[in-house]
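Morning, I've got a small favour to ask if you have a moment. I owe you a coffee for this, so here goes:
>
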Amino acid sequence: MKKKIALNVFYNLGIIVSICGIFWAFRNGKYPPAALFVATGGYFVYLKIQLVKEMRNLLKK
């Protein structure tokens, strides 16, 4: 359970850093890094959704 909480914190930090990176990249006109931040942010959101689904199933049992 502690591992899953740590993963959740890591995913949240990854999402926050990606959002900050997107804003930074667009303000400075650097579009390739912005695309990278969008991709990594999307991946972290996907992983977080999978973790939440797994936790729901674990708590139901």
Notes: The longest helix spans residues 31-60. The mean pLDDT is 94. Helices lie at 2-27, 31-60. The two ends are 14 Å apart (CA to CA).
